[in-house]
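Our example pasted here:


***
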Amino acid sequence: MKNRKRQIGTLADYVKANRKASRDEEIQAHGKQVSMRPAVFKSKKAYDRKRQKKAGINPDDLPL
């Protein structure tokens, strides 16, 4: 009988290989990597000049 060496990888190597394969499939399917992290919640009550400009609010309408 031939003695064959079996390639034994650690669990970390297995997980890493699966993640890479999954990432490659995702890029092929969508053309880019899809992010699953949601955007940080932004309070509407906080002062935001950019949002006010988009909404068309004049500075004269503000209480101060």
